[in-house]
Structures
1.
Amino acid sequence: MRKYIFKSLLLVLILIPGVLKAQTTGTIISGMVYDEYGPMVMVNVKEVDASNRIVAFSVTDINGNFSFKLVNPKDKIMISSVGSKTQVITINSTYFKVKMINDTQLREVVVSSKRKLETGGLAIPDREISSASQLISAKEFEGLPFTNISDALQGRISGLDIVANSGNLGSGTTMRLRGVSSINGNSEPLIVVDGNVWETDENSNFDYANANEEKFAQLLNVNPEDIESISVMKDAAATAIWGSQGANGVIDIKTKRGSRGRSIVTYSLRLTGTSQPEGYKMMNGDEYTMLLKESYFNSKLSNDAANIIEFNYDPTYSEYQMYNNNTDWRKAVIQIGQQTNHFVSVSGGGEKANFRISGGYDTETGSVIGQKMDIFSTRVALDYFVSDRIKIVSNFSLTHTDNNKNYDLGNGSSLLSLAYKKMPNLSIYEEDAMGRSTGEFYHMLSNSSSELNDQRGMVNPVALAALAKNEERSNNIMPEFQIVYNLLGVEATQTQLKYEGKVVFSIFNKYNDAYYPSDLITSGWSASNANFTSSEAYKSLGITTTHTLTFVPHFKNEDHSFMAMLRGQTTSGNSSTQFTSENGLPSGTITSPAAEAIINGFTTGAGQWRSAYFTFSSHYAYKGRYMADFSVRRDGSTKFGPQQRWGNFPAVSLRWNISDEPFMQNQKWISMLSFRPGWGKVGNQPSSDYLYFSKYAQGNSYIGQTSIYPSNIRLSNLKWESKETYNVGFDFGFLDDKITSDLNFYTQLTSDLLMYDRAIPTSSGYTGLSVQNVGSMRNNGWELNLNGNGVVKSGKFSMDLNLSFANNTNEIIEMDPTVLEGMNSPFDRSNGSYLTRVQLKNAFGTIYGFHYKGVYQYSDYSEVEIPGVSGPNAPIVRNSKGEVILNENGRTKPMYFCYGTTSEYIFKGGDAMYEDINKDGNINELDIVYLGSSLPKITGGFGFKINYGRLTLNNQFNFRIGNQIINAARMNAESMYSNNNQSKAVNWRWRTEGDNTVIPRALYNYGYNWLGSDRFVENGSFVRLNYTQLSYSLDPRLLKSIGLSQVRMYVSANNLFCLTPYSGADPEVGYGSYGITYDSSQTPRAKSVTGGITIGF
Amino acid sequence: MKKIGLVCCIGAILTACSDFLSILPLNDIVLENYWTEKADVDNAVTGCYEALESSDCITRMAIWGELRSDNIVPGMTTPETESQMLKGNLLPTNAFTKWTCFYQVINRCNTVMYYAPKVQALDPNYTVSELKANIAEVTALRDLCYFYLIRTFENVPFVTEPSIDDNQVYVVKASTFDEILTTLISDLELVKEDAVNKYANVTSNTGRITRSSIYALMADLYLWKQDYGNSEKYCDLVIDSKIKAYDTEKNNTKTKLKLYGKFPLVNELVSGSYSGNAYTEIFGTGNSFESIFELDFEENQSVSNSFVPTYYGSSSTQIGYLSPAEYLIKDIVTGTNAIFKKTDCRYLESMEEMNGVYAIDKYTRLNTSFNNTIAGAPQVETTKRSTNFANWILYRLTDVMLMKAEAQVELAGEITTNAITPEQKTYYQSAFKLVSAVYNRANNITIGRTDTLVYNTYATSRANMEDLVLKERQRELLFEGKRWFDLVRMARRDGNNVRLINYAIKKYTENQSALRKKMNSQNSLYFPYNKDELKANKLLIQNPAYNTETTSSITD
């Protein structure tokens, strides 16, 4: 193509025929450049050598004249100007007169490239991709108020199930691509930014199943405004080149780069307000005290037990004013959160270099009080073309976050969860004798009734937010340097061999400072958390070196196309941490651990990691119709011993574009129909290093002598967890790709599953092996994606649609029986616990418990109801026909809980009624049944975008269907078992004989009214309006007159509504252990409204 | 050219990779670099002691050996695990059925035994006799652990190989009580003479395994094997060494000692009018003359004995999780108590009443003294520990003396219808002298009101003599983790649990018939295997007494 342009260029080139004489080094070359309007100013005139390296340089003056000293007569002259077509002239004269041709005239000739998807290696045309992957351009969510891209991806990628962990600032998301395929290993997909993996210490004790903050930090690293496109690689054929890193799928993010042309400056501003959706309505102080008195009385049947001074409204009690309130703690800890995001970018490029510089500053306050986060991020991308053959690329990114979180009280309690539990008759502030607030935070005194110890232990959440400190600051710096060298041809018509060398540094530093003042405790100065301060510093440095060779031969017969890549990479890194904590700081104004105080803890740690891999990947296409891909990756890991150190991960995939076959040519309406089978294998490595060593640790000394002991069993047998995927995919395109769709069916077999803390007989002297390969698991599923691009179009009106669906089923194929038994704990006969059962041929995430059948209306049985005295609905034993069983004296038999055990209990009126499945008159483990699964049947999303002129309405929904959630939040709010505040629903509780209700009676620390039953297992299906946005761009012609290139304004709303049968605040709850979902009243995802403007200069 | 260069580069990377991927832990030593010199062995041997004095181990030594006996009832804020056990509900889910900490010691000992000979071959500074002494030391520690395990669980997996690699087989079936006991004895017979007789460090003489402590352990093992002759022999070796030590002892320590018969014991009443010195020396200060082997805790070290303050009490808690059974302490002052005479120092040293609740005082005090010039109830002056550094005694002289007494009573055998034979009489007299010596040392609370035992009351029958020894063991070794094992040993000898039940049931005020029934089988003398252990080790067969949950628990 370019050859023709060349020729035409030469044709229009006007060479002034001068006196032809031999030019030598030092000869002055001069000339004049002009175009159709006359002489051109500031045109670059360069002398370039054979590899297009600049050796001499000049710029034309106001009359279009130039001159320079010739370096080498064999060189050429290159004349270029923005907006004009570059011209190259051989030096056969000393004076040139050059006419430049407007670039725009040629544009239509040039633009005809295929959309290519670069999947971490080869740039393969869109229509030739044979693996399962999906690409989303950032245009689709431009201007939407996301702080990280996982929000944006939600519901857009079929098979990628993203669940926000909580609405707290800085808390992450749980992502599962094609289901859970590991028992307790890392299940999060790999995130790759511009081909780089975020390198930090994969801490040996890192709990992948539960922690997501690290991943989140990684996502925060990329400002959504900087993203060009995101591709998600799903099957092993696509991820094989990422080897063990990509075992759970790969999310590949490309950031924007500068391009040649005028410099473009854009500025955007977003203002967002967020608020908490309301969860359960909680009781007020009056309802609460009444409940608690009842609850204490019921469990002991004694008025004395219920005589707790804090509930008595006794005006003679010194603290009376502090216990006679109706405090809405929830309301006290929530607020309207505010976010302001500024983003500036400058991009452009010229002859030699392209650049893009961006900077963003976000400041956010949470929808829960006391949370504030600032993020500053900047990214510089620079491409410098030394010559046609050599390109130097440098990227630099920095993210600084300063997150003021709520103080971490441990045990997972958040401000909001405290607010839900805290007794509502208690006041926030201390009140004087007249009940007027003094403005001082009130804390329950240490001499308050001992029954309320647990409440006393719960700190005043408002005071906590105001007085305690928990600041996390992090700096993430990633400089990158890359050199690209074309060793052979540079034109598409030539055989190409490209070398690419790259070094990436990841520098990550994190500081955590916390302070807990003594004002928050009433137990005195000696408490170890009085004026407690801690400071933690973590730093890590990772260096990744990559060498890539890409070979693209050019065949005479253009039906064949082939490309191959060979890549080697090494990574090494190290990290260190320091932690210091002190208590008893002398005053509340000093919060640094540098001050003199009682040293509480002082630890340091160091880590080191290395890895190496080699990848070969190739792509072959015949006539653009038959494609074959092959790749193999060899991974070396320090986590295995020398015998198992290297893992090989091959993948093969094929594609047949049926629609391109001659027999399909007359089917114009079908623009794409393809069939893609693929197979691949990837591996997973354990999370900790040094497992194959028998390690010796230092113990305590004994009689002055140091002790050293062996601390583990070395794992010589440990192997890679391997995951084999078979994928069959179809691509569809209709009406000239107006409607595109892809459908994938897959089966994944994970074998040699890594199981952490594998129990072995303790007669070995150890409780377990840190990791062992224990069995295999299978995931089957399908995914469907549907995109309509301008499906409806009439005049100014057009509409785009997208829809995605996915389903995944999971099954354990084989597992060592002792492993299974180890995972399955016996029924502990206590309230609130559900059985975990991991069984062969069954899925993860199944919930087992009792069947809840309501409440016993009466304590005493009578065949016919005697109102207020007795009735048929009483806790007595019945046979399978429902007939009452009588004993030898003709009396009914009472219903027991766990008869003959230490937990034995006789049910009474007002107690929860559980189904006695086996009709033995005893509610015990034999009555536990299957209650559902936490794994959703279908996940996905849909969205539509309506354009009318320059007005756009963009809506995106996401949904999950058919998953069950254990609503532990409601369980705690309705158990009436402790001093915690309860939801208003318990106002309908059973209070007296004959009450017909579904809420059992209040029993303080007694009875079995909230056993793990289907009462608290709820359907977590939902459809959420993830975001809706209305945007308007001003007329560019109008803008040009005031010197602007773009003005776009928008309003959008996130999480506007959520349709769900779920009763809790938010059905979007992350996976817990063994895939079971527990909703333990974490901060729900906030609702937000954003207004913003983007201006381009 | 460049291409060739690149290929070369990649080739070089490939070969360098194996080295590149071999990294050593930054915070740990690895096996490959360990076991090269004498110091490595020394540190690893210390590691065995360190594991043995972990609070898990000490708590189990005390709980396994004491909790089910007639000495203990619940104290203050007793946790569920302990209180269920005290109620007689011993389930496979109970945390005290976990034995990991003992096998940890065993594994460390096995590791030393496996690698120490290799070090000897490498390090010329590590002599053969030092090697032998180390082997003897860890053999004794390992056997001590197994001894605890078989007394508690009867049959346990017997592992003598170190656990190093995941290639090894860790699922091991249980060996029987007798097999293990025989092996333990023969192991010790092989190494007993190799052990160190006296360490340079004085504390080590009681804090680490010496020849005497091996003898004491062997005497105990033989006693359980019902080989009374050998038991007596090894008791004598210990006692004789103490007598010899007394003779060579310097005057300043000698003043604290006194000969009771020929037996040198720490004197309760050193000077003037204050008794209680023996307690201060043995339990308060620790590492006393009488001590044979105890686990040492030093104030300046980070490791502490958390068992004593948690379970027995401290200056802040006063009463721990456990309390003495009421019958032990009640009515002493009126003189009607069956166990303690009011002249006995030990009741004042071991327990006290605090507002109607009883506290265990053994180990919890730094010192005691009773002013015996006051008529009536003695005035007790004590200091309770505020720190957790009480040593834990495994063997001491009076324990060995009473073991010998027990062996001799058994050697004498049953008195037939005819009169006692001269041989029997010798045994009885010797046994009585031993018991008397221990008894007399303690019975001196008040001047002029000493109490002594009368030979003729006991020498009438074997049962009486046995009872005499057993009672004295209870009094002397109260709360030292010995009582339940004494009762089990007796039941094994009897072949039935009748006498054991009669003792053990004393502390219960309710549910006695059910408990009697439950304790009836020999199997019920031992603990169940932990549920998790059974899950991990399919070759273990649960003690039949605990096979189903319903048979092992009692409604309360």
Note: Residues 1-8, 549-556 of chain B have pLDDT under 50 and may be disordered.
2.
Amino acid sequence: MTTRISPVAWLAAPAGLFFVLFFLLPFGVMALFSALDGNPLQRPNVTFTGRNYARILDDSLYVESLLSTLKIGAVTTLVALLLGYPLAHWLARMRSRAGHALLLMAVIAPMLTGIVVRTFAWITILSDKGVVNATLVGLGLASAPLPLMYNELGTVIALVHIYVPFMVLTLAGVIGRIDERLEEAAMSLGASPIRAFLEVTLPLSLPGILAGSLLVFALAISAYVTPYLMGGQQVLTLPMLIYQQVAATFNLAFAGALGVVLLVVSIVLVIAYNHVLGSMARREDLA
Amino acid sequence: MARGTLGRRVYLAANGAILFFLLAPLAVVAVFALNPTPFIQFPPVGVTTRWFQKFFASPEFMNSLWLSLQVAGAVVVLATFIGAAAALALARGRLPGSRVLTALFLAPLMLPAILTGLALFQVFQLLGLGRPTWALVIGHTLVAVPYVMRTTLAVLSDFDRRIEEAAAILGASPGRIFFEVTLPIIRPGVIAGGIFAFIVSFDQFPISLFLVTPNRETLPVVLFNYMKFDLDGAIAAASMVSILLALAVVVLIDRLVGLRATMRI
Amino acid sequence: MSTRISRRAALGALTAATALGAFGRPHVARAQAPTLKITTWGGKWGEVMKGEVLPAFEKEFKCKVEVDQAFPYLPKLQASAKNTPIYDVLHANSNEQWRAAVDGLVVEKITQKEVPNIKDVYPYAVSDKIAGVTIFTSAIGLGYRTDKGLTPPKSWKDLADPKLAGQRGGYQIPVNSLGQSHLMLLGQLYGKGMTDLDAAYKALEQLKPIKLVDFTGQMEKMLLQAEVVMGVIHDSGVYRYDGQNQPIEFAAPAEGVLSLEQVLNVTPGSKVKELAYGYIDYMLRPDVQKKLAEAVWYSPANKDVKLDAKYDAKLYNTPEKVAQLIQVDWKWYNERKDEVDARVARILRG
């Protein structure tokens, strides 16, 4: 059985070239610099050193922040999935054209707010004197403002808000292509709407769930602007540390080392996740 | 369509709540853009157009808005070609390890953008290339291509090949099949990816910080710099204008191509 | 078909060529003008710079100025080659200039020889705590709400008042130099001096719970929204709301105010060093200093600046007032920044 590479494979050449030139090469240079004791553009004699990597292993702060990053990424992905799926389902099954257009615009609009402005909006909503607390305290439902900000909760809320539209748009495409007649057939055979959903629609949308959650996870673990502005000092993710090293401590080589670690760990996780959910999706293929 | 009305009500209520969650911050931004006070205040104390006026009257904001649109346009074209081609190759090319490759192409999104920007800047400096505008386009394209790839792959993944086989049986050449059967079917996926690419480029900020040149800065960079010094309603006005502009683009695409098509085959 | 050129066509071509030549000549002359690459802040400062100060400088010195406004600047300078630096003049706060100086990215000392107007500045502007030349400074003190029944703070220690728990504001120390200065000051207030980090850490613990922000603009907003009722802030951040009737005020504590300097420095690899020094000299001229000081409420470094009455009353422009400014040792701090950041992260994480 020959599975010869088809000539169509050559279509990947532009992407591959682009990737090698503008991602692998710069990243490779950055990784190289992270193993040198100085910038070769600035100093003529530089030598290799593993001190940046040794430092990451030595101080538990970095491992802790990596774990914090992964945890926040996973929680964000899960919540975005839980919120995104119903909305995607609604969007995909919407019959009215106007309704569809309106809902689509409502989903896309938050994506264009701009990361900084939208974070400030969340600060206005979640801070001690913000909308939520002012309402709760004003109505007497709470005796003191709830700590919704400057902690992991606030960060996750703001991150979920950014990524739900990505999840919705990815899922809606897949759900939209599921033939509704399959559900109807299940229900005409006696299944309740919920059962039809769980046993027909949901499994068929697994590829979308996989794609959407992979995308959101990748984005969430590289986020630093939002955790920065929302988490105060309570949240310290690896991207935030990287940002600090670049823009405040000005240690580019160390930042590069942290970036290498983050990327390697993320890629491994993503490949594993892809593999597991991918084989689950394949098993669900209908003829 | 025999859904219990209770189930239907819960479904609609849940979706309504989620929608409210999505749009609440937008309402706050709108208030910030219209409220006379120079800081976000809820509930608002009045309505003013001075922030919008400030935004539109500033040549810096306007030039950067225009540049952002131009860059985003270029990025859409570039990313769509590269991404769609790559998706076809991954889905049809029978490449070994295509599963791993697909995950690897997601890598630019996993690296904090500040490092991506720094790495690109460093390489361009090493090669003595300075900071040309095409570098900015490339930086944005790098983080836009994964989206186009994903949406195109999604359409390709449950593409019924029998349509193509039927066309072949009827005598069409492979080239004709590609242009008259395959492309139109994957077009919705490509367009959806293009919309993503536009949004991603227009809103992209950390990479731009490193690759913009004096007097040729994108809108997010100008906003950020402005905000570090003068945190007032003008940034909210800029935000609202961006949203309205991009929504206009989306509506235009809907008229031309029909966005419903992007949601189904 | 004849290829004879008609008279009209020839005349037209000649006119066009002359016109193009007219456009071309100034363009060619301009292309030979030297270019000065600088950095500058945005907001009101950037408006005045790009609107008035820089065009006048370009005209007088017959050059072109390229302004990078995309913060952060030092990483870009670090990533560029030493003999083709991406900037000729770096405008930064003192902590960043020191970091750049230690890395050899800026010259460590500038004297009257290169910048004549140095003869007219206050001593703090070119003290040994400065790498480069200070053109302006602000005073870091305590900002507070006037409508919450607080007694105006008289000492830095008033920030630690238990009644203010959860309602006081500070900065994220790893990324903000006001936060870093304040930390060192805590060592002096509660311990043996600015290098007594142990005392500083203890004092920081006592300040919890405290709301931390990244940059001063956010602190201004927190005060305006009454999210905090007292916070560490520089005078400019409070005074810029002058005339807007906002219930916030600035207090200069009795122990002194920390200085937040705006420092200019030149890169050693610059190809237009003369022009760069000329620019620094220009920024120290009394008329330029007055214009910028009054636009953003900064205290000018030049002794001979005559500010309008309302600015004169509040800013630090007499030898007596200037004596209250406390300058910190950034070289020392930068050397241990990473340890401090890690330690502070642990303290404030809860």
Note: The interface with chain A takes residues 71-72, 74-75, 78-82, 96, 99, 103-105, 166, 172, 174-176, 211-212, 214, 225-227, 337-338, 341-342, 344-346, 348-350 of chain C (CB under 8 Å).
